[in-house]
Amino acid sequence: MACGTAVVSSGRTSLAEVVGDAGLVIEPTRQGVAAGILKLANDPELRAELSARGLERSRGYSWEATADQTLAAYRDVIGSVAA
User: Fold this and answer.
1) CB 49 within 8 A of CB 27
2) By CB distance 3.0 to 4.6 Å, which of 11, 22, 59, 76 could disulfide with 53?
3) How would you write the pLDDT of the chain (83 residues) with one tens digit per residue?
4) Contact 22/2 with Cβ under 8 angstroms?
5) Which one, of 6, 41, 43, 42, lies nearest residue 25 by Cα?
6) Rounded to whole angstroms, how far apart are CA atoms 6 and 48?
């Protein structure tokens, strides 16, 4: 998504939550994957829309934010154990 590529993602993992409406969420079966890829391949407007949404959504994720949230979680645990 961060590269502007339209995404096909499984609907049965946490990736569906990450992708949200910025990607095509499919059932992780052979047929589901094939249908998702074909849908994007045959619909340039959908590809462009998901590309734009993906770029926007990916701005909400960064390694710095991940590190900050992880550190906050560790501090919460340490604080609750120390109390």
Assistant:
1) no
2) 22
3) 999 999 999 999 899 999 999 999 999 999 999 999 999 999 999 999 999 999 999 998 999 999 999 999 999 999 887 76
4) no
5) 6
6) 7
